[in-house]
Amino acid sequence: MIRALMVACTLLALATLGACAGTPSITIAPSSSPAPSTGAQSGALLDPQGNVVMYVTNQSIAQGRVDIAIDVDGRPVVDRQFAAGSGHNFKQYVLRLASGRHVLTAHSLTGKASLRRAFFVNGKQWLVVSYWYSTKAQGTPEPRQFDFRIQDHPMFFD
What pTM value is reported for the model? Predict the structure, then answer.
């Protein structure tokens, strides 16, 4: 119920601010639980009342589905397949992290990419982990890679 209310509020804020005016629709789908392969430790990080809102997305035109596994401080949070869809397909995970330094690791076997990034939490934070890859056949080639962004206000995706 709380998760559905959070998603509704996010979508209402996006519509009210006109952040999506003139752009394709955006799907922000909350994850109801970690993937079955994650261990019991991840449950301590996932918390609908948490202070870090993390979005994960596959933005690859060349690779429609990609596996993405994400750990925070060595503890599994996400391990599942992500479809690119229309390119505006963001899965939401809410974490409870203590203030201070943390390390996020993202890895994809099928996407042949990995990322390790230290970040600091101070209050409410929003972050996004995106997988990117395109070939000359899709236009401008882009190497297989993850992108990481963090900020102290909600994300608005275009």
Answer: 0.73
